[in-house]
Amino acid sequence: MLDIPVTYSSTYKPTGSKHRARAAPDPPPLFDDTSGAYSSQPGEYPAPGADVAFNVNHLLGDPMANVAMAYGSSIASHGKDMVHKELHRFVSVNKLKYFFAVDTAYVAKKLGLLVFPYTHQNWEVQYSRDVPLPPRQDLNAPDLYIPTMAFITYVLLAGMALGIQKRFSPEVLGLCASTALVWVAMEVLALLLGVYLATVRSDLSTFHLLAYSGYKYVGDGYYVALAWTSSALMYFIVRSLRTAALGPDTVGGPAPRQRLQLYLTLGAAAFQPLIIYWLTFHLVR
């Protein structure tokens, strides 16, 4: 019998073969599929910002988170109130605005009054409904604008004088400015102590005394100018303090208190030229 060879095609696979090709299993996902949290329909993509909204809603729904947020807001509000309370305790913003309520006409007239106060007649501070008028409406009202500008001018002139003498340095200029501030602070503290010891009942505040002490920097001159501005400033201080602060208490008071108030006024006035000379003599050589 002849054997007839059987040829199989390359695509032929016996049906009874036990060896079948199996597809490789899919690798496990790195992250869990959370798309169901955004959309219930397959194939939809979450809207931009949906994950943020989900987290915020989840956070707001947590009672402990709400308590923590409320407690934090309460602490922040309490701290803000404490800061404002302490600030207003030492520095009243409304009172400070009063001393800077000036205009050009007031500044020009006040500078003329400081340089030549001898012809000025009325030294009383004007009031409206028991409230003192601001400086721009009353020439006798003290201000802090002129003392501030005069102090800055003094520092600049001191730097220029030191530069002309080839003695300028930032350290020397800083020492000059800090020394002037220390002297003003000491003068204000001495006046406050004198007013307390004299038991003077007046509306004088720290800002008032700071303004009157700062007017000394207007007279940035020397020799003849120093003598003129010092005498004018002494006259201005005596008339201002006696009329605005010490005058009402002096009338009808006991004689020892009257003398003490007079000595306090004269001492404050006599102290001005000494400070002016001390702050300027080393700049003129």
TrEMBL record:
InterPro entries, A to Z: Yif1_fam
Entry annotated with the keyword Acyltransferase: no
Keyword rRNA-binding included in the entry's annotation: no
GO biological-process terms attached to the record: endoplasmic reticulum to Golgi vesicle-mediated transport; protein transport
Location(s) in or outside the cell: Endoplasmic reticulum membrane; Golgi apparatus membrane
UniProt entry keywords in alphabetical sequence: Endoplasmic reticulum, Golgi apparatus, Membrane, Protein transport, Transmembrane, Transmembrane helix, Transport
Residues covered by region (Disordered): 1-42
Domain of life from the UniProt record: Eukaryota
Coiled coil: none
Record field: transmembrane: 144-165, 172-198, 222-241, 262-280
GO cellular component terms, semicolon-separated: COPII-coated ER to Golgi transport vesicle; endoplasmic reticulum membrane; endoplasmic reticulum-Golgi intermediate compartment; Golgi membrane
Membrane topology designation: Multi-pass membrane protein
Its job: Has a role in transport between endoplasmic reticulum and Golgi.
UniProt-listed PANTHER family: PROTEIN YIF1A, YIP1 INTERACTING FACTOR HOMOLOG YIF1 PROTEIN
Family named by the database record: Belongs to the YIF1 family.
Protein name in the entry: Protein YIF1
